[in-house]
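Supplementary notes for students who missed Thursday's class. We covered one full example, reproduced here. Read the sequence, then the structure, then the short commentary at the end.
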Amino acid sequence: MDDTIVDILPLTIVELAPVRDDQGQIVDFIWVYANEMSNRVVLPEGGSIVGQRVCDIDPAYRESDMFSDAVLCIETGQPRELFNSSRTPTPHGRLKHLEGTVVRYSIMPKGDGCVICSVEITDLVHARDQANDWLEMFRSAFDHAVQAITLTTETSRIIYANQALYDLLGYAPGELEGKSSQVIMRREDHEAVVKAGTKMWGGKIEQEIMDVTLIGKSGEEIIVSTALTSLYSEVRGERIFISHARDVRADRKLAHDLATALQRAEHATQLKSEFLANMSHELRTPLNGILGMAQVLTGGELTTAQAEQVSIILESGQSLLAILNDILDLSKIEAGRMELSFVEADLRHKLNRVCKLYEPVAQEKGINLRLVVDPSVPALLMLDTVRLRQCVGNLISNAVKFTENGDILIVATAETRGEDTSRITIHVSDNGCGIPHEKVAQIFESFVQADGSTTRKYGGSGLGLPISRKLARMMGGDITVASELNKGSIFTLTLESQIVRQERPISVPKPARDTDLGITRKASLEDGRVAPSVLVVDDNAINRRVARSFLEQNDYEVHEACDGLQALMRLGNEFFDLVLMDINMPELDGQRALDRLRAGDGPNASAPVIALTADSMRGDREKYIARGFNGYVSKPIDQRSILTVMESCLAAARPNPDRRSA
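Structure (token representation):
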């Protein structure tokens, strides 16, 4: 071969002649030929190695694998092919620059010596070692992964499964490799996995997440959530599918248990709501008799002692009704059924009305009740006036209750936030008995008061503050307290409210008073009008007697029916100006009785009908009006309230006087 061609090859080619000792053993070699690459490798500073002894340049050569292989080749006459030979020994002297290199060489006999061809593969070996290191790291990571990882071919053959999969399915490590993935999953799930793989192969999706039921070695079915991905292996020349599976049995059981617990809780809440509704109805019915008759008595001629006795009955009944309402409010809030209703309102007017309610009680105790509304408070705000009155009323009521004398100051301020939002702050301060520091947090807990003797001394259910705080938070605010024992307390109510931009002054009509209603009724009768006839429909005889007593006292002509069926019979044959209809009745309830009345063409088909019910949920009035009633009154019936509603319904019906002759 032409030396020029040999010299340009990236190979080292040398011919070695053996050097033997007196016993004929080979102890060294002499280079008798070396191409240019060989010279540069051994003598990088330049020169030729031909004619030199190898051990003179590298004394450690005699202990190297290459020396042993060269001797063996010469003695046996057989060539030696060493692929990926071991590293060269640490060079000394002039060969130190070869330290750490790796070569692959072939040794062929030639005459008494041999020819060695070698190529340096250091970079290839380093790359191989690095790849092996990465492979071991990934294998270790996969084997220690919590998720079960599987690599399969396009033909569903498992080529790798990590330890988590073997532990999950109960197989020995390596037992699944080479088997079809059909062995470890249900048929329909395997078909779904293959279908997903086809989509990934076609580039339609990059990943598929699905639930799969795996089959353990014992036959146990195990539900897992699997994420499928794929990659193309250049080495294998095929696509590999990777599955990451997570055992979701515990999650599914937890979800099932939570769903069951939620159903039970909802059922318990429903039972609680039904119980409270029934309790409300059962308690309001006798309360209606007590309070109704007491109100009737107040309209009669009573001695001073009798008037005081009736007043005690009314006060006790109202206290019992307040406790009942507190319990129902708390139940609705806890059940998430409390709804707020915001209307345009003048905060100054509303606070003044609330203070007026408590002025008589405060004056009896020698307490000066003062209200201060800062000019920063907007003229009109969007407020839930009912719940605002409930919160402020509770704070003032408590202040009056726990203060023996002195002052109670109510101060309202506002802080504008943005163009249309205002943060309202209402402070109610007193110089009463105060609250011990360690008891402050307890007063906002349901059924808890600062002292066990408080209930016995002052009364109450211990629900007012907890309910008020919950309502305040529903309105975007809170109730907080600062108190010092024997010196007094400051309760602070905050709430968020929308500002109403007032375009023109708004006049608020003056509400009718009880005396106004009486004067109107008497004036009508003196003018010669016939007393309006009212049909009272209620299955409770006491309720009918209460209604008859105060209606006749206010110059109404009263008729009775004990249920919906009897009411329809009378309504079909007689004329009535107004109907008071109880909702919950046997045989035929008030709602169905109204529906039949409106569907007919009798003399009272268009008569105003007012719903009477022991239900007092927020929104009931709107509900019954939407169902066709002309008005709504909750029990226990307050005379002023029902007379106001009756007057309103009668006034609306008067434009059709010919209905009586229909």
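Commentary. Residues 145-247 form a domain with the Beta-Lactamase fold (CATH 3.30.450.20). The mean pLDDT is 82. If anything here is unclear, bring it to office hours.
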